[in-house]
Specification:
homodimer, 315 residues, alpha+beta, Arc Repressor Mutant, subunit A, Aminopeptidase, seven-stranded mixed beta sheet, 18% strand, DNA-binding
Chain lengths: 315, 315
DNA sequence: TATATTTGCGTAATTAGTTACGTAAAAAAC
DNA sequence: GTTTTTTACGTAACTAATTACGCAAATATA
C-alpha cells in the first residue's frame, strides 16, 4: 500500500530526538575520559558562567533553557562547590551566580576536551557531504520566523483549496443560495425585504436582469455563493452582493477563490467597475474585499439599513 | 579571552535537543488542526502497526525505542481503543498488537496530515541551503560505524602524541631508564642478573658497544625508553630491547612513537635486520611489535628465562 | 502615596523517554 | 529429563527537561 510511502518526514521529530540521544549518550563517557567531574547537562550553564557572572534568568536566556532548569542545575553545581550564589545588593530578587575557584580551575582543565570535541565534530563533518551544523542553524532561523504549525497549516489550506470548484448557478443550488446568505445575515442583522426578494427569486431578480451567480462546491457540496447584480448606474456596471461562505469550511480560502472568480466573470461580461456595500462589523469580509482590490468610496443611497461602508473596484 | 572561542561544537547535543523541542512542540497542535485524536509520541508505534501486526519488542526494534517505552505507549493506545492486544498462541510470552477497527479508521483519516506535513518539511528544506534531512541520515550512519566517544578519543590521542618528544639517551635519564624497566619486569617476572647489568650500566653495556638508547619525553618528563643492543651475530645487527613505557601515559601512542624512532635509528646505523625477544603474556607489547612490522621466528639461545617468543624485522 | 503590574526565582507536578529488575515461557545444554 | 540460559515483557525508579504556580521585590500607574 502506498499509504505510508511518504511518511518519513512526518517522523522528523522522532528522528532528530534519536540522533540527539545518540550524541548525548556518549557525553558522560567523554567527560570521564578527561576526568572532568562535570555532568554533561551542566555544560551550557558552566560555559555561560565562564564568560562572566550572571543571574539565573540571565543564564536561562543565554542558553535557551527555562529558568527552573537553570535554577536546578545551579543548585546542583553549588552542591559540588563549582559555583557560588550571592543575592544582588541593588535588586533583592536577583541571584548572582559565578564560578568558584574550583569552577575556574575546572574551566582551565576542560580546555583540552573542548578542542578535542570540536575537532572530533569537525572530523565527522568532513566525512559527511551535508553540513549538519549549518543545516541546524538554518532550520532554527526558519522556524523562528514561521513555526512548523504555520507551514503545515499553509499546506493544508493549499491542498483543500484544490478541492474547491467554482461553478455557475443552477436551480438545484437555489436553496443553498438562500440558506447560506440567511445564515450570516440573521446572525448579525435582520433579514430585510430586499433580501427576501433576491434570495427567493434569484432568477427573476438577478440572472434575468443580466447578473450572475457563482457557487463554490467543496467535495461537491455547495458551501459558498456570490452574485453580480446588474446596476442601472452611469458609473458602475455591477454590484458584488450576496456573498456568503459557510463557517464550516473556514480556512480554505473559499471566499478568496469565489471573489476572484466573480471578478473574472464581471470582466468577461465587459464590466469596467464594480461596486459593493457592507458593514465594518464584518471584519473578515472587509479584509477580503481589500485583498481583492476593492477601495473604499464615499457614500451613496442604499436600500439596506445595515450598510455603513461602500467600496469599488476598477477592472 | 580565547578560552571559549571554539566551544560552539561542544554543545552540539544541546543545540540538537533544542531544535528537536521546537519541532515537537508544534506536533500536538498539528494533530489538533486535523482533529486526529492521537498523541504525537504514539505516532511511531501507530505507524509501525499500520504496516502489520507486531509484538512489543518487534515494534521497539522497528522504531528504535526501548521495549518498556513501547509497552507503555501500547497500553495507552489500548485504553483509547486504537489497538488490540492478544497473546500469541505459539509463544505465550509474546503480546501481538494490532490496530483495532477504530485505529484503522484513524489511519485512513490521517493521510491528509501526512502529506501536508511532508510537504511542509519539504517546503522548509527548499528555503534552506543545507539539507537537514540528508545531514541527519549521514550522521546516523557515521555514528553507527564509530561513536562520538571514539572520534573524541582519537583526537585526544593525536593531540597528546604531539606532546611527546623522542630524544637520545643522556646520563640524567639513567635513573628513568632503570626505573621504567624495573617497573614492568618485576610486575610480571623477576629481575635477572643480565637485567641489572644493562640497566645499571647502560653506557658500558649498550652505548659503548655500538648500541643506542632513546628516551620518550611527555611534557619534558621521561616516560618511555627503548634500546638497540649491538649483536655479535651473522644474521642480526641489533636487538631491540629494554622497551618500557610508564602506565601513567597509556593511550598516547608512546610505544608506537618510540618503536618507530628506534627503527629509524637502526636504519641510520646501517642495520639490515633487527631481533627481539619477549613473552606472549605481554599482549599489548606483542601487538605493538606486529604493528611495527616484526614477524615471529623460530627459537634461538637466550640468556632470559622469561622469553618465549622471538621476532625479527627486515629493514 | 497607595495600588497594580511586572520581574526574578524557587517549588511542584508533568512529560517522554530511559535503565534496572523481576517473572514466566521457550530454547539450549548437560 | 533436569538444569541453565535466553527471550518477551511488565513494573518501578530515574532523568533532563518542561509548564504551572506562588511569593517577594521592583517598577509603573492612578
Amino acid at each position: 500500500m502506498d499509504f505510508y510511502n511518504q511518511t518519513g518526514k512526518m517522523a522528523i521529530g522522532s528522528r532528530l530526538r534519536q540522533l540527539t540521544d545518540k550524541i548525548t549518550a556518549d557525553a558522560a563517557d567523554i567527560y570521564k575520559l578527561y576526568q572532568i567531574d562535570l555532568q554533561p547537562k551542566w555544560f551550557p550553564v558552566f560555559y555561560a558562567l565562564a564568560q562572566g557572572n550572571l543571574t539565573i534568568t540571565g543564564i536561562a536566556r543565554q542558553i535557551g533553557h527555562s529558568h527552573p532548569s537553570v535554577s536546578k542545575i545551579v543548585a546542583e553545581m553549588s552542591d559540588k562547590g563549582l559555583v557560588t550564589e550571592k543575592k544582588d545588593k541593588e535588586d533583592g530578587r536577583k541571584n548572582m551566580v559565578s564560578l568558584s575557584r574550583k569552577g575556574k580551575v575546572l574551566a582551565e582543565k576542560i580546555k583540552d576536551q573542548y578542542s578535542d570535541v570540536t575537532n572530533a565534530v569537525e572530523a565527522i563533518s568532513k566525512e559527511a557531504q551535508h553540513d549538519l551544523w549549518k543545516a541546524i542553524e538554518e532550520w532554527e532561523f526558519l522556524l523562528n520566523r514561521k513555526s512548523l504549525l504555520q507551514y503545515v497549516a499553509e499546506q493544508k489550506k493549499q491542498r483543500e483549496s484544490k478541492k474547491v470548484r467554482i461553478i455557475p448557478f443552477k436551480p438545484i443550488y437555489a436553496e443553498a443560495f438562500k440558506k447560506l446568505n440567511e445564515e450570516w445575515i440573521s446572525a448579525y442583522f435582520k433579514m430585510e425585504d430586499s433580501d427576501y426578494k433576491a434570495l427567493d427569486h434569484p432568477k427573476e431578480y438577478i440572472l434575468n436582469k443580466g447578473g450572475a451567480i457563482l457557487v463554490a462546491l467543496y467535495e461537491d457540496e455547495p458551501v459558498g455563493v456570490c452574485a453580480l447584480i446588474k446596476m442601472d448606474d452611469p458609473e458602475y456596471d455591477y454590484e458584488l452582493a450576496k456573498m456568503a461562505v459557510s463557517p464550516k469550511v473556514q480556512g480554505k480560502s473559499i471566499g478568496w477563490l469565489l471573489g476572484q472568480a466573480i471578478i473574472e466573470k464581471a470582466k468577461s461580461l465587459g464590466a469596467k467597475k464594480l461596486y459593493l456595500e457592507s458593514n465594518t462589523m464584518l471584519k473578515p469580509a472587509i479584509n477580503l474585499y481589500y485583498k481583492l482590490g476593492f477601495k473604499k468610496v464615499a457614500g451613496r443611497a442604499t436600500p439596506y439599513e445595515r450598510c455603513n461602508i461602500q467600496m469599488e473596484l476598477e477592472l
